[in-house]
Amino acid sequence: MSETDDPGPKAGNVEVPEGLVAAVAGLVDTGAVPLGAYTIAELTVVDAVVDFLAARPSDEVLAEAVRSLSARQLLVPGTGEDRIQVRGDLGIAVAFQRRARMVLDARIAGARSGEPWRMLVLPQPEQLCLIVRIDALGVHELSLHTLDETLQMVADWLPQGPLAPPDSAVEADAVLAAAQRSALLTATHYTAVGSAEVAGESTDLVLASRDGKLHAFVRDPADPTHLVAKAGRGRSPRDAVAALLDRQPTGHGGTPR
């Protein structure tokens, strides 16, 4: 094969230094831990992507990503034949991504210049989360945050406004078409089969701000292709994110309603 025909190391051959998780988890309580910015190809090469959330880049693009990471000394030979080790901040990201078994995929319509249009949140067994912020150029910015900081960060980014009372007569399509800002949040539990992630049960929530009110919609159990107003007393965006992540924040974030 030519140099560009070889996509580089396979995901199952990637290893990270031992002890990374314990060493880094304790730092998150003192402040956010930035882990750098990467392309989707670079993250795919080291298996730092939840498989069902992104299409696999071409082999030529992956081969270029291997060369880029190697030149930056983020990929070095591993402990066995055909194995590589991921170093630096990228190694930390890989270690935490592999521990997650749930992801919150949040996408915004109406994003402002300079802010991400998509966020991935991967909660950890500790009260912390790995966050991936994706901008319009496809740059993936990774960082670790406490759960409380994560909830506030995502909530501040979501559509805002006082909660509109549930109304079965309100048409979701009409609200979304006129919304100044809207978001689709999908929480998915998954399992790992080797180095591949397999999606399991998922839950969707749609938020939309229109005329100063925040509307919430969920999928109709009788017809999942149709959105209906969320029944019951509404939750603030922060509490809604906490519920989707199935996590109870430790700090003061408002009482769930």
Descriptive account of the structure:
The protein has 257 residues and is of the alpha+beta class. It has one domain (3-245). Helix content is 26%, strand content 33%. It is built from 7 helices and 12 strands. It has helices at residues 20-28, 40-45, 59-71, 88-99, 147-157, 172-178, 237-245; strands at residues 14-15, 33-38, 75-77, 84-86, 102-109, 118-123, 128-134, 140-146, 181-193, 196-210, 213-220, 223-229. The chain has a 9-stranded antiparallel sheet, with helices on both faces. A 3-stranded mixed sheet has the order 1-4-3. A hairpin with a 4-residue loop joins strand 6 and strand 7 (128-134). Helix 5 (147-157) packs across helix 7. The protein is elongated, with a radius of gyration of 20 Å.
> Roughly what is the average pLDDT, rounded to an integer?
87
Radius of gyration, whole Å: 20 Å
Span between termini: 60 Å
Structural class by secondary-structure content: alpha+beta
